[in-house]
Amino acid sequence: MRAKVIVAVTTAVVTATALWMGTANAATLFSDDFNDGNADGWTRSGGTWVVSSGAYTQTGTGSDAKAQAGSTSWTAQSVTARVRPTAWGSNSNRAVGVAARATGLSTFYSLVLTQSAVQIRRGTTVLTSASFSVSTGTWYTLKLNASGQGLTGFVNGGQVLSTVDGALASGRAGFVAGYAAAQFDDILVTDEAGPSPSPSASSPNPSPSVSPSGSPSPTPSVSIPPMPNVADGYAGVNAWGQNGTSGGAGGSTVDVNSASAFLSAIANPNPLVIRVNGMISLPGPMHDVTSHKTIIGVGANSGLTGGGLNIGLPLSDSITSPPANAVRNVIVRNLNITNCPDDCINVQMFSHHIWIDHNQLGNQNDGALDVKRGSSYVTISWNRFANSDKNMLLGHDDSNDAQDVGRLKVTYHHNFLDGSNQRNPRVRFGEPVHIYNNYYLHITGYGAASQMNACLVVENNYFDDVEKPTRNDVGGTAGRIEARGNINVNTEDPIVTAGSCTSQPRDYYSYTLDPAANIPALVSAGAGVGKI
To answer: In terms of pTM, does the model score above 0.70?
Structure first.
């Protein structure tokens, strides 16, 4: 299709465009998919621009390259395009992205990706920025809305940045490839900019990890991915004589719908798959689970109330290394666990290879899901935590170094921390503890905390209205935090980073990060019960 500047459109086209953009009554001003093999109507500056394989490609990394099209009279506008960075130059202003309200080849607003951030700029001036993990060779859908003085940026359908600036009132749309090689495709410019920030929105913010106020915009186009039935993260590692976590695989399967049947099953010394049918009322407070068990709820309305699970041997300070009879190889999935007089789930005393996945936990007296006393090789994934105060503790005491140093290896990923107040998690001694792709929403206490020289790797999480997203000052010796690729909105508190870890999660297992901008939609749709 040739580049098109649209003067008038039919009602049907307007409606179709509005549905695609997620807004109503938006008229198309311009579009180009480069399928005709040319870039007629585009003005270029710097770099080497060619149309290749149905995309507009800028191949050089040694200059500040731009391409623009359209009318300088456009005011309110939304510019959406697919952008694929392919190589980075050495200049500090290197970036790729989309432009709006361009009055010249050096004067415009832009939403750009750098190697580690997403930014809204005016020319080369950064107006606001957020940490964001960017990979060469990957396509990203960028959208920059300009309405009045409001500027709002979206990546892959999720809002990532918002600010105000009144310097540029109108202009053309285009692409930015500053000291970077990139491909661009499927640009669409409409006259409907969508939601804009209020006049009280933050002005330029120099912090690379904190964006001004702006509500998340989960996109309905993000579908729930297939949920694997194999433990990942630390629970999938071959260590301590256990190769991954298989639970009760190979054993018998029993269906239980009463407290007596459930308690008998979890005490059975043999491998067992225990299917929980309906809500079972347990006597409190917690009940021991033996090794080689899979405990899984049937449907979305099964689980436990009135009592929790203890995965581990009785407490002992004298044991300082993993005993041969430590509880191991336990899977807990798809359970509602609520009204717990103590913890909902407690993992202790060198228990290992534990996978806690797709549960709904909350309304407990102590911790929703605690891991302590040398336990390790644990993965906590795709759970929803709500009505929870002291949510997740990793390492129970500042004086427990004899049991905990070198252990407490836990992965937390794709969990929905929905209003949980504190300990999300609170970590002592563990290194490296991996916290990635979690959705933190309306947290009044704090998110992830590191102390007693623990080290957290915090990657591609989405923090929305979280007081102190990360911190290392909750008590005891300060811990270390590596944070990268996260998005942080609706708070004045920064994502704290401090020090570095002596090893990385990738030293233990492989994993794939979802873009942080996708996390609100992805996790709210996929976390909790009834999703496997």
So the answer is: no
Residue 226, preceding bond cis, omega within 30 degrees? no
Residues 6+ apart with CB under 8 A from 497: 209, 470, 481, 482, 483
Contact between 295 and 289 under an 8 Å Cβ cutoff? The reply is yes
Distance CA 177, CA 62 (A): 10
- DSSP-derived letter for residue 512 is -
Question: What domain range is 164 assigned to?
Answer: 4-190
Instruction: Report the domain count for the chain.
Output: 2
- Give per-residue pLDDT as tens, 472-527: 999 999 999 999 999 999 999 999 999 999 999 999 999 999 999 999 999 999 99
What Å distances lie between residue 514 and 414, 459, 518, CA to CA?
9, 10, 7
Q: What is the phi-psi region of residue 18: left when phi exceeds 0, alpha when psi lies from -120 to 50, beta otherwise?
A: alpha
Q: How far apart are CA 14 and CA 8, in angstroms?
A: 10
Regarding beta strands 117-122 and 125-131, do their DSSP bridges make them parallel or antiparallel, or are they unpaired?
Answer: antiparallel
Give the residue numbers marked as catalytic. Answer: 423
CATH of the domain at 421: 2.160.20.10
